[in-house]
């Protein structure tokens, strides 16, 4: 077996990237049967508000942030697949305001179908991203599986008083999104052979950009809540912020999109996860009359390794945009605001 004779990575998986995630409604049904966790004084963030990672207080100046994320291939190049999966996993650490300290690899591969060279390239891609983040891949676990799966356990540190969660938004806050949307549409176009070289380059550039900006938000004046936008789409993760904060999140119906995405969506390119997302939480979202189906699909589009959604005091929003753009997030933009009202999302024209 050689890389030249192997099947495409994406052909071995029934889904790819964060589009593999269980639909929000399915996840809720599974978790509702879980017994309540015993109280632990040092568990600062657990499962209560669908936050991005768990946080455990180590001492008065350090808290450990712990998360894990893994999925099936969203692209065929093994090195790119590894990079995307690792970037996505580290994002949850950054979304809590933490700095990563180490990672463990999670590897499930069809060893009778893929060569050791291809599997090694996946791991090398992940390791290259960890090196960029300044951390080691210090171990991990591997199994023989039917579909190729790769990801990380990621650990980070943050001051206990500076942990960022999705539940601290305040009425009057501006909402900033650091990456343009459309990763799900581009990945669907790739899988169907409709993505050109420019579209692929845009897909890779977005999904391999580390959300390291998040570590600079801890303790920053005016930053009240942060989450990353991944498999549940912009509407789903905004709804988690609304529910966590007990307020209404108001979003523009026209957030920034990756180049070429709108044209593809207009021709019906979408992921199955986009529809499942809407079916799961659409009852808690108010849409403007006449919003085109393609536009709604983009708002529920699953974002593999998506951007940060930041609730920040309006007076600090411009300075935060400047910081994000200086960090390389050229498409960062204000896409909405937080207002008094029930825990819902409202899309405005």
List keywords for this structure.
single chain; about 350 residues; alpha+beta; six-stranded mixed β-sheet
Compute the number of strand runs.
Answer: 13
The mean pLDDT is: 93
> What is the strand content?
15-25%
The profile of the biggest β sheet is: 7 strands, mixed
Uncertain regions spanning at least 5 consecutive residues: none
Class of secondary structure makeup:
alpha+beta
Order of helices and strands: HEEEHEHEEEHHEHEHHEHEHEE
Shape: globular
Relative helix content:
25-40%
Query: What distance separates the N and C termini?
Result: 54 Å
Please tell me how large the radius of gyration is. 19 Å
Q: Describe the strand arrangement of the main beta sheet, using strand numbers.
A: 8-11-7-12-9-13-10
What do these coordinates show?
It is a single chain. The chain is globular. It has helices at 24-31, 78-95, 116-133, 183-191, 197-207, 233-245, 261-266, 272-281, 293-300, 317-326; strands spanning 43-45, 54-57, 63-71, 99-109, 137-144, 149-158, 174-177, 223-228, 248-252, 285-286, 308-312, 333-339, 345-348. The chain is built from ten helices and 13 strands. With 349 residues, the protein is an alpha+beta fold. The strands form two sheets. The chain has a seven-stranded mixed β-sheet with strand order 8-11-7-12-9-13-10. 32% of the residues lie in helices and 22% in strands.
Blueprint (SSEs and pairs):
Blueprint: H1 24-31, E1 43-45, E2 54-57, E3 63-71, H2 78-95, E4 99-109, H3 116-133, E5 137-144, E6 149-158, E7 174-177, H4 183-191, H5 197-207, E8 223-228, H6 233-245, E9 248-252, H7 261-266, H8 272-281, E10 285-286, H9 293-300, E11 308-312, H10 317-326, E12 333-339, E13 345-348
Parallel strand pairs: 4-5, 9-13, 10-13
Antiparallel strand pairs: 1-2, 2-3, 3-6, 4-6, 7-11, 7-12, 8-11, 9-12
Helix pairs in contact: 2-3, 4-5, 8-9
């Amino acid at each position: 077996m050689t890389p030249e004779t192997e099947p495409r990575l994406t052909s071995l998986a029934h889904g790819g990237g964060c589009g593999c995630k269980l639909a929000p409604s399915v996840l809720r049904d599974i978790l509702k049967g879980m017994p309540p966790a015993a109280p632990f004084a040092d568990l600062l963030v657990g499962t209560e508000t669908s936050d991005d990672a768990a946080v455990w207080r180590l001492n008065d100046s350090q808290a450990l942030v712990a998360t894990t994320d893994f999925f099936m291939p969203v692209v065929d190049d093994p090195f790119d697949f590894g990079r995307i999966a690792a970037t996505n996993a580290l994002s949850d650490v950054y979304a809590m305001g933490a700095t990563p300290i180490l990672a463990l690899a999670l590897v499930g591969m069809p060893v009778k179908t893929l060569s050791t060279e291809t599997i090694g390239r996946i791991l090398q891609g992940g390791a290259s991203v960890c090196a960029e983040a300044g951390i080691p891949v210090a171990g991990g676990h591997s199994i023989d599986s039917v579909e190729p799966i790769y990801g990380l356990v990621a650990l980070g540190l943050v001051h206990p008083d500076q942990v960022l969660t999705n539940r601290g938004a305040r009425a009057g806050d501006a909402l900033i999104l650091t990456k343009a949307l459309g990763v799900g549409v581009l990945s669907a176009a790739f899988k169907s052979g409709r993505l050109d070289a420019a579209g692929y380059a845009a897909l890779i550039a977005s999904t391999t950009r580390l959300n390291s900006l998040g570590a600079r938000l801890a303790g920053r004046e005016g930053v009240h809540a942060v989450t990353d936008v991944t498999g549940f789409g912009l509407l789903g993760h905004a709804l988690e912020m609304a529910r966590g904060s007990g307020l209404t999140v108001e979003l523009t119906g026209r957030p920034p999109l990756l180049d070429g995405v709108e044209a593809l969506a207009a021709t019906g390119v979408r992921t199955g996860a986009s529809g499942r997302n809407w079916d799961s939480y659409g009852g808690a979202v108010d849409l403007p009359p006449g919003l085109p189906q393609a536009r709604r699909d983009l708002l529920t589009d699953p974002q593999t390794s998506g951007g940060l959604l930041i609730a920040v005091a309006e007076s600090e929003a411009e300075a935060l945009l400047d910081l994000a753009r200086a960090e390389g997030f050229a498409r960062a933009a204000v896409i909405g605001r937080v207002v008094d009202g029930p825990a819902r999302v409202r899309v405005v024209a």
